């Protein structure tokens, strides 16, 4: 599923993208699996792709082609966090696979919450992709809304269901 690149400067309203999508992945994950999962998670929560400010993951995956291409398709940066930073974040759905492979019990939820900053709120808990055809899931995502930031001019946050 292709997603057009979104240009937030062309929005007629003063909405500031305030959603962060944390993404975990296996090596070689396809861009389609990542973008399909993120789009389904956003739609399932009534959230608009245009409200996504960035994707976040574990530092070891920031050069993963499928994640870089997914960030490009959504028109946002991909930010990486060290495994130790992610491990310090309490997650609702810990994974022994992530702990073994990356040294942190969670990537998607922890990355979303770290990128959301102080006061950030987890809106969508970790979801796994469903690639079909008997293939195993190679991507997870979670969505958080950024918390209020000191010194930032008040602006309207992306409303749920915004385009």
Helix content: 25-40%
Which structural category do the helix and sheet elements fall into?
A: alpha/beta
Number of strands: 7
Mean pLDDT: 86
Low-confidence stretches: 1-9, 151-156
**Shape designation:** globular
Question: What is the percentage of strand-forming residues?
Answer: 15-25%
Order of strands side by side in the largest beta sheet? 4-3-2-6-5
Counted by DSSP, the helix tally is 5
Largest sheet at a glance? 5 strands, mixed
End-to-end gap: 18 Å
Tell me the radius of gyration: 15 Å
SSE order in H/E notation?
Answer: EEHEHEHHHEEE
Account of the 3D structure:
The radius of gyration is 15 Å and the shape is globular. Helix 1 packs across helix 2 (65-74). It has 163 residues and is an alpha/beta fold. A five-stranded mixed beta sheet has the order 4-3-2-6-5. The protein has five helices and seven strands, in the order ββαβαβαααβββ. 28% of the residues lie in helices and 23% in strands. Mean pLDDT is 86; it is low at 1-9 and 151-156. It has helices at residues 31-44, 65-74, 83-87, 96-102, 108-116, and strands at residues 15-16, 19-25, 52-58, 78-81, 121-128, 139-145, 156-157.
Care to give the gist of this entry?
The chain has 163 residues and is α/β, with parallel strands linked by helices.
Write the layout of secondary structure elements.
Blueprint: E1 15-16, E2 19-25, H1 31-44, E3 52-58, H2 65-74, E4 78-81, H3 83-87, H4 96-102, H5 108-116, E5 121-128, E6 139-145, E7 156-157
Parallel strand pairs: 1-7, 2-3, 3-4
Antiparallel strand pairs: 2-6, 5-6
Helix pairs in contact: 1-2
């Amino acid at each position: 599923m292709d997603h057009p690149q979104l240009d937030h400067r062309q929005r007629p309203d003063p909405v500031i993208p305030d959603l962060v999508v944390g993404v975990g992945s296996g090596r070689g994950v396809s861009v389609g699996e990542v973008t399909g999962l993120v789009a389904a998670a956003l739609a399932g929560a009534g959230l608009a792709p245009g409200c996504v400010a960035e994707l976040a993951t574990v530092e070891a995956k920031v050069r993963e082609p499928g994640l870089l291409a997914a960030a490009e398709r959504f028109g946002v940066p991909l930010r990486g966090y060290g495994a130790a930073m992610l491990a310090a974040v309490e997650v609702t759905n810990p994974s022994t696979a992530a702990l073994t492979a990356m040294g942190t019990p969670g990537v998607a939820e922890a990355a979303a919450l770290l990128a959301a900053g102080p006061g950030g709120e987890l809106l969508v808990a970790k979801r796994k992709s469903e690639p079909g055809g008997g293939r195993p899931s190679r991507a997870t995502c979670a969505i958080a809304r950024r918390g209020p930031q000191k010194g930032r001019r008040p602006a309207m946050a992306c409303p749920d269901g915004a385009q």
